[in-house]
Amino acid sequence: MAGEVSALVARAQAGDAEAFGLLYDRHVDQLYRFLSSQVRDRQTAEDLTSETFLRALHNLSAFRPGGDFGTWLTAIARNLAGAHESHTVEFPVAEVHLQAEPASDPATTAVDRLAHAALIAGVDQLSAPQRQCIVLRYWRELSIDETAQAMGKTPKAIKGLQHKALNALRGLLPSGVVMPA
C-alpha cells in the first residue's frame, strides 16, 4: 500500500491530475475526521479539508520521496486548523465512531455506547495539544514518529504528551470505562 501511494505521489508530482485525485480519494475521509476533531463546525472542517488539499497540490514538489503522504497532509491540516482556531478546540462526539462491531446483545451495545460517549467527553476536556495527540495516536492510528511529524514535535515530546493526556483522561473518566491501549 505504501508503495502504491508513493507511485501515486510520483505521478502527481509529474503533473498527473488523475493520480492526485486518487490520493485525494484515499485520504479525504481520514483528513476530514482529523479536522473535525480540531474544529467544532462541520462546514469549517470541510473548508479546511479542501484548503489542505489545495495547499498540498500547490506544494507537492516539497513532499519528499519516502515520506508518509498522509502524515504530510495531516501536518498541513494541523497548521491550517491552528491558524483558524486560536482558542480551545472541542472534540466533536458525533464525528468519532466506535471501532468495534456492536455486540449482538442490545444491553451490551448500549453500555458500550455510553462508555464510548464518556471517553469522547473526557477527551473533549483535555488541552488542545493533548486532544490532538490522542486523536492522532488512537483514532488516526498514527505511530509516535508520524504523530511527532504531524504535530511538529519530537517523538520524545509526543511520548510525554501522550502519557500526560492518558493520565489526565484516567482522572476524567468514570470507573469501568476502558482506556485506549
UniProtKB/TrEMBL annotation:
Q: Does the keyword Zinc apply?
A: no
Q: Which GO terms describe its biological process?
A: DNA-templated transcription initiation
Instruction: Determine the domain of life of the protein's source.
Output: Bacteria
Q: Does the keyword Amino-acid biosynthesis apply?
A: no
**SUPFAM superfamilies (alphabetical):** Sigma2 domain of RNA polymerase sigma factors, Sigma3 and sigma4 domains of RNA polymerase sigma factors
GO molecular function term, any single one? DNA binding
Keywords attached to this Swiss-Prot or TrEMBL record, sorted alphabetically, are: DNA-binding, Sigma factor, Transcription, Transcription regulation
Coiled-coil stretches are: none
Domain RNA polymerase sigma-70 region, first and last residues per copy: 23-81, 124-170
Kindly give the InterPro entries that the UniProt entry links to this protein: RNA_pol_sigma-70-like, RNA_pol_sigma-70_dom, RNA_pol_sigma70_r2, RNA_pol_sigma70_r4, RNA_pol_sigma_r2, RNA_pol_sigma_r3/r4-like, WH-like_DNA-bd_sf
A Pfam family (short name) is Sigma70_r4
Per the similarity annotation, which family is this?
Answer: Belongs to the sigma-70 factor family. ECF subfamily.
Q: Which PANTHER family match?
A: RNA POLYMERASE ECF-TYPE SIGMA FACTO, RNA POLYMERASE SIGMA-70 FACTOR
What is the protein's given name? Answer: Sigma-70 family RNA polymerase sigma factor
Q: Which organism is it from?
A: Micromonospora orduensis
The organism that produces this protein has a lineage beginning with: Bacteria, Bacillati, Actinomycetota, Actinomycetes, Micromonosporales
